[in-house]
Amino acid sequence: MASITSVSYSVLVNGSPLGIVKPQRGIRQDDPLSPYIFILCADILSHLIKVKAAASDIRGIKVGLEAPVITHLQFADDSLFFCQTNARNCQALKDAFDVYEYYSGQKINTSKSVITFGSRVYGSTQARLKTILDIPNQCGGGKYLGLPEQFGRKKKEMFNYIIERVKQRTSSWSSKFLSPAGKEILIKSVALAMPVYSMSCFKLPQGVITEIEAVLMRFWWAKTNEKSGIPWIAWKRLQLSKADGGLGFRDLAKFNDALLAKQAWRLLRFPNSLCARVLKARYYLNDSILEAKPRSYQSYGWASILEGLDLIKKGTRHLVGDGHLTQVLLKIKHFLWRIITRALSTTTRLNTRGMKLDPTCKRCSLSDESINHVFVECPHSLHVWRLAQFPLQRFISPTDNIEVSLMRMLDIQADGSLSTEEQLKPFWLLWRIWKARNNLIFNNQRENPARIVIQAQAEVKDWADSLVQKSRYNHQHLCSFDEQWIPLDLPYTKCNFDAAFNSNTNAVTGGWILRNNRGHPLAWGSSRLSPAQTPLEAEAKALLAAMQQSWIRGYKAVIFEGDCEGLIKMITHSNHDISILRLCQDITFWSKKFPNVHFLFTKRCNNSAAHHLAKLGCLNSSFYSDNDKPPPWLSRHLYFLDYD
């Protein structure tokens, strides 16, 4: 702040600075520091809203049960705030605005601010809340960031402003004498770029696109503003590339789909972004975005993204991996490895090792017994594949080698429409085919193809059932990690903390997690701390870091809970160990900053979330998150209460 208050200017006269001008109203608007100062101020406003939300004074909106709670969104110098339509929420929001105005010196322009309500809010309630917030304007038919604020059923009318803008721009050009080259540049660089932002968010109605192209076509062929000219070539031909005889004008409909596909691609690439989590909770909660389907209650924006998603699906291909994620019985994995490495004792392979054997297949006597023949080419094996009633004609061909066929079988794992048994069935069929071949060679017993299929189906079913039981056991086991986490009464927030101490290097990492009375996380983090000599010192440093992070986030009534009983007793009974006396004094100093603070001991099994966050600090110098949607690796260590 000293750089801001002490700023001064000089005037260059003949290249030399002359005099000093000290502004009395702060830095100028285009000062290089301005955007950074604005970001700091906006972050303060965001922090004020978070504090109100943590105290339950402001409750944001959720679009679904699993959706994140949104209290505010900030776009450059614009902010959107969400709260419930009651006096308490609106008054808390107004109080946050007042505090922000007082300390920042920036006053919110209520004449430019607008407020919108849900369709079920009574008019009297709307008027009362407008008075509390001191915002008289109500949004509806205007525009925000160049887009309509609200959408009705008549989409074409909503986007008529784009047509009017293109008409106005081309009309201003028509009064000038432009060559065809000049018109081409203006159409490509200006006219066709005008609807880009709208097209990147919404699917424009075909009628709007047709009218825009008609306006551009009239401008292209017109001689003057009064004469429209003769369209010698259709606009579709002008949209062809110059290599194909056109002029390379964009096809707006296809360009619109490409821009929407880019939005869908972002949702696919960044599933943890706020936008992706909101849309997933609303439209494809238990599926991937690639399996998302139209809904009867969907918004126009989501319907537009689905248009781009179709383009993504047409251009995506499943990348076949190495199969390490496929859960297959270990003996089957070794067997598949032997197939790939051609380490099976077929007669042709044995002959390469100097054994003089008849290479003819003992089952069909039609060809030499190679690995490809045993599993793919032999009529006996083909009969097994057909009886399995599996669409393996797409994956197995007698003309392919066994490696190609196996890679295609791995591709089945990406087919979400198939059950686990159907996905794993090919591997057990290969196993049973080989077992049947060995039974014929060594025991002279020929197995019926139908029996082979039945045995494979029975074995794969047993394996699939065991996977389900294992998954259930893991879920119960993981959920029991933190089942003894003790809930608390409002207005307290609980902060669990823990430390990870390396006795060889004296390195210390601390982890902490803030949770509300239902166990839902409010914030969490981990960081590397200064070295310590003992585990007790490490725990004290982790507690101090947790207190500082809690205070920074505005939590004033906090219960700090850790699994170091000795440290908790020292803090609560003021019986400090001389080795950590300075740390205990720091903890006491910070505890006085909290109006309500308590320190509790808990068992290690009840502190697993903080314990794993402390271990995370070994990988990162620091990591903090204020997200209310924890990642899966953290969720498995949390215990949520199911009451409202």
From TrEMBL:
Pfam families: RVT_1, RVT_3, zf-RVT
CDD domains (alphabetical): RNase_H_like (cd06222)
Domain Reverse transcriptase: 13-146
GO molecular function, one term: nucleic acid binding
Keyword list, A-Z: Nucleotidyltransferase, RNA-directed DNA polymerase, Transferase
Segments forming domain Reverse transcriptase zinc-binding: 327-385
Residues of the RNase H type-1 domain: 496-616
PANTHER family recorded: REVERSE TRANSCRIPTASE DOMAIN-CONTAINING PROTEIN (PTHR33116:SF86), REVERSE TRANSCRIPTASE ZINC-BINDING DOMAIN-CONTAINING PROTEIN-RELATED-RELATED (PTHR33116)
Protein name (database record): Reverse transcriptase zinc-binding domain
